Amino acid sequence: MATEMLAYIDRKSFIHGLSGATKLIIFIMWSSIAMLTYDTRILLVLFIFSMIVLKVSKIKLREIGFVLLFILAFLLLNNIAIYIFSPQEGVKIYGTSHVLVEIVGRYNITLEQLFYQFNITLKYFAVIPAALLFIVTTHPSEFAASLNKIGVNYKIAYSVSLALRYIPDIQRDFRTIAQAQQARGIDLSSKEKLTKRIKNAGSIILPLILSSLDRIDTISNAMELRAFGKKKQRTWYNERNFNRHDYVTMLVGFIILIVSLVITFSDGSRFYNPFV
Amino acid sequence: MERGLSIKTIVAIGIGSAVFVILGRFASIPTGIPNTSIETSYAFLALMSIIFGPIAGVLIGLIGHALKDALFYGSIWWSWVLVSSFVGLFIGVFASRINIQSGIFGGKQIITFNIVQAIVQAIGWFLIAPTLDIIIYAEPANKVYLQGIAAGLSNIVTVGVIGTILLISYARTRSKSNSLSVE
Description:
The complex is a heterodimer of chains A (276) and B (183). Chain A is mostly helical and 276 residues long. Chain A folds into 2 domains: 14-139 and 243-266, no CATH class; 152-225, no CATH class. In chain A, 68% of the residues lie in helices and 2% in strands. Chain A is built from 10 helices and 2 strands, in the order αααααββααααα. Chain A has helices spanning 14-17, 20-36, 40-56, 65-85, 89-94, 111-137, 140-149, 154-183, 194-225, 244-266, and strands at residues 99-101, 109-110. In chain A, a hairpin with a 7-residue loop joins β1 (99-101) and β2. In chain A, α4 runs antiparallel to α6. Chain A is flat. Chain B has helices at residues 7-26, 40-52, 54-73, 78-93, 95-98, 107-137, 141-173, and strands spanning 28-30, 37-39. Chain B has one domain (7-169): Arp2/3 complex 21 kDa subunit ARPC3 (Orthogonal Bundle), CATH 1.10.1760.20. In chain B, a hairpin with a 6-residue loop joins β1 (28-30) and β2 (37-39). In chain B, strands 1-2 form a two-stranded antiparallel ribbon. The longest helix of chain B is centred in the C-terminal third of the chain and has 33 residues, at 141-173. The chains are: A mainly alpha (276), B mainly alpha (183). At the A-B interface, α4, α6, α8 and α9 of A face α1, α2, α3 and α7 of B. Chain B: Pfam families: ECF-ribofla_trS. Chain B: It is a multi-pass membrane protein. Chain B: Keywords: Cell membrane, Membrane, Transmembrane, Transmembrane helix. Chain B: Belongs to the UPF0397 family. Chain B: It comes from Pseudogracilibacillus auburnensis.
């Protein structure tokens, strides 16, 4: 069971020095742009810009390599699926057809289709570095404080913080239970038939769920004793105040957002069409 | 006395999201059809929505799914995250009709639960997820609808089988109301 998972990587860099709330705001703006636009020029700029930020953050590609590999595999499969299901989607969007390679009928490879799939892939490439960076440069405890700072109710922010705190514990529970059941001959691997596997999965997740429900009781009693939620606000041990760097970063992010939206929607379509 | 969320709900959201993440990552069983697996995490989500109600459901779906995507896959597929929270919310809305805390989860409740979950998930996976995929990612319609239908059917069956089993087992751990008899 490979358990590689993205986690905070401690470094000294400009990005690590920013407050979590700044990074969260930038991340939200960044994903919104990448979701809204289909303009190749903007996506390329975003991608190059996020590579520069990656460099500044001193995070090495090797450290997040396993996730990148997974995403590349996903993008490859996704692109193949798109081509199989709709090989002329690009022609439909851009309105012209330049056939490059003749295969059969609608499976002819067109320049428009290649460009469309390039854009889909680029859309992921533009947002993935930002998401990865946000996760590996923000300390989990600071993350909850940041959520609260940008206006999320502190009780909900606290739930997120609880979730991050307990993921490793529950992962350990899961493994213990799975191993105990395997010792009793309950197999969850692909050697077992599908119906049997589903039944076996049930015998692992039921103890996990019941022990987690117990955990909920224990933790909520402890919090109740400490009068959690009594006041309208709370302070955070890991909260960081905004400094000059934060304001500058947010300003830059905001300018990028506005410029991207203006360029994207100025010609009435969110696609950049080089074919006309 | 309680203003807004109770402490128990807050903790349930936190721990529930963590369990959702772990089940989604380690306890999903591939069916052999590409991109479709038996997601035991949705059976768990349904259970939590029934026990703790719609607010817990919507937030476990949202936080759990977003964290799972972010921590293991490095990017968040918002279209599908929103469907998870939609499913959590609307199964939770019917929680009071099932009233699992009474310890009774027999034929009538099983039927109610399964009708509700099938309708909610059908709307979510067959309609909302593909439509959002088209709006956000401009993917080809026939591809995303087929993906949605495959994922939806498998999730409806998973919640129907594993979710029902979980609820029956959970109900057994509650003491039945009206279980005392005069001697």
